[in-house]
Amino acid sequence: MAGLNYRDGRLHIEGDLRYGTVAALSRQLLAQAAREGDMMLDLAGVGQCDSAAVAMLAACRSVKQRQQDRLLIENVPQGLANLIGVYGLGAVLLNAQ
Fold first, then answer.
1. Cβ contacts of residue 62 below 8 Å, gap of 6+?
2. What is the torsional sign of CA 78, 82, 84, 90?
3. Contact, 4 vs 29, CB < 8 A?
């Protein structure tokens, strides 16, 4: 099961991010994004993922962009980075400030 943990000034996302597991996590993440200013996500604990993970991160980026805040994403697993690249969102999600 995927989860959010706040520590060290970052939100850590942990677990598998797949279509069947990401809905509740996505709601939590977007609610947190709406409450915070600049946000740092640490994805070191992410296991398997699919396009639902990319959609969740893109939705979070959209919230932060509307608020004119920064979203920094670090420790992106290679599989997720590859998916982000396939969807052409590398510049938006991986290099965005």
1. none
2. positive
3. yes
